Amino acid sequence: MDRRSVINLHLYFSGVSLFLLLLFILSGSLHLFGVKEGEQSLSLGFVEVVGAPSQENLEKLLNEKIKEHNPNYKFDYIKGKSPSFITRPTTRTYYKLKYNDVDNKVEVTQHIPNFNKRLMEFHKGHGPLRTKKILAVIALIFALAIFTGLWLGLTVKSYRKITLLTSGTSLLIVLFLFNL
Q1: Alpha carbons 131 and 124: distance in angstroms, whole number
Q2: SS3 letters for 79-138?
Q3: Is 34 left (phi over 0), alpha (psi -120 to 50) or beta?
Q4: Phi-psi bin for 177: left (phi > 0), alpha (psi -120 to 50), beta?
Q5: What does each C-alpha distance from 35 to 24, 29, 32, 117 come to in angstroms?
Q6: Which of 8, 83, 98, 121 gets the most CB atoms within 10 Å of its CB?
Q7: CA-to-CA distance for 9 and 3, rounded, in angstroms?
């Protein structure tokens, strides 16, 4: 592949991944600088059950309870294990179910995430199921943008030294931080 083609690929990969990368940088930075994620919670009450509820029973129970409160709500799936379960995606209003085996009741709680929490949940891949494959492809595009840029820097003699120096420094920083 000639140099011009690699430059074009690098520009395409960088352009496609730009705004998602900025979104991840924003969400991660806000979290690391102490701007915490928050949410409003509202208990929708308790539902009596017989024994520990199964995944199927939880979905049925949740659909019945939510329809009373929010008839248009849809969720992709339920995540968790006894005694606590949540609906996904958590990038929008979601519900928690907490089973109490002492009195055989499940508490259903509505959670409304603030903007920072929605960003972080998306960052962690907790958005709608259909976005997971898209994000995986974009992660590959991120990697291709980085490696084509590295290749371009290494193949130009005047940039080779600084490319090796900055890439090596980055590797040392990652190794240092990973081993703290």
Answers
A1: 12
A2: EEECCEEEEECCCCCEEEEEEECCCCEEEEEEEEECHHHHHHHHHCCCCCHHHHHHHHHH
A3: left
A4: alpha
A5: 15, 9, 7, 10
A6: 121
A7: 10
Structure token pair of residue 118: 């929605």
- Please give the Cα distance from 106 to 97 (Å, whole number): 6
First to last CA, the chain: 41
Q: Note the pLDDT tens digit of each residue in 103-114.
A: 888 888 999 999
pLDDT grade, residue 32 (50/70/90)? very high
CB-based contacts of 57, cutoff 8 Å, min separation 6: 49
The answer to whether the CB of 127 falls within 8 A of the CB of 91 is: yes
Q: Which CA distances in Å does 69 have to 42, 44, 45, 73? A: 11, 8, 11, 9
Q: Kindly report the pTM of this predicted structure.
A: 0.78
Structure tokens that stand for 11 in this block = 């520009």
Q: For residue 113, is the peptide bond before it cis, meaning its omega torsion is within 30 degrees of 0? A: no
- Strand, coil or helix: what is 21? helix
Q: What is the pLDDT of residues 11-27, one digit of tens each?
A: 999 999 999 999 999 99
* Helix (H), strand (E) counts: the chain: 5, 5
